[in-house]
Design goal:
By secondary structure, this protein is of the alpha+beta class. The chain has two helices and eleven strands; from the N terminus they run E-E-E-E-H-E-E-E-E-E-E-E-H. It binds zinc ion. The site of zinc ion has 7 residues, from loops.
Length: 175
């Protein structure tokens, strides 16, 4: 199996053997590259995602719950983002509206585009540790409740098992 790495500087895509995952390489242009780790989905995540898919097929709404005093931080998701200084937006708190195993909604005054990949950090009220996950912006609309704010719907693309377990706990507590 090979992993594709795209050089941020020259845009060339290199294919390397997955035994080099997590290691560094140098592109032909001289840019230092970090070979990403292959995406791993745990059995727990598969079970969770499977249940969600089944619920979708049944025509049920995804089980999202409204949360109070939750906060969302985000930055563009990139294999290389950790090599650079985090953008300012990574430190801005955005009010979390609701969360479920398949995604979340939050409010922001920033302009996000549909399809944008985000690395998310979610802080739930009363929880010591923030949850980290990745997602894609599914839709952006003007908030009907808060002036000059956009409501953003995010569909999760990667939820680590610990975050999935916490979301499950939160959604079951309320329902
Ligand atoms: Zn390059």
């Amino acid at each position: 199996m090979s992993i594709a790495v795209t050089c941020e500087k020259c845009g060339k895509t290199l294919k390397v053997d997955d035994k080099y995952a997590g290691k560094h390489a140098r592109c032909m242009c001289g840019e230092k590259l970090t070979i990403p780790l292959p995406a791993v989905t745990s059995k727990f995540e598969q079970a969770v995602m499977g249940a969600e898919d089944a619920a979708h097929k049944d025509g049920k709404k995804p089980s999202r719950v409204e949360v109070k005093d939750g906060e969302v931080f985000y930055q563009p998701a990139s294999f290389f983002s950790f090599l650079k200084k985090p953008p300012k937006s990574a430190k801005v708190r955005h009010p979390l509206l609701n969360i479920g195993l398949s995604g979340l909604e939050f409010l922001t005054s920033e302009m996000l585009v549909e399809g944008a990949a985000l690395a998310l950090t979610v802080k739930l009220a009363g929880e010591l540790y923030p949850l980290k996950m990745k997602g894609t912006v599914k839709w952006v609309k003007k908030s009907e409740k808060v002036a000059k704010m956009n409501q953003v719907g995010v569909h999760f693309t990667k939820v680590p098992a610990d975050a999935a377990a916490k979301i499950k706990e939160v959604t079951q507590k309320v329902v």
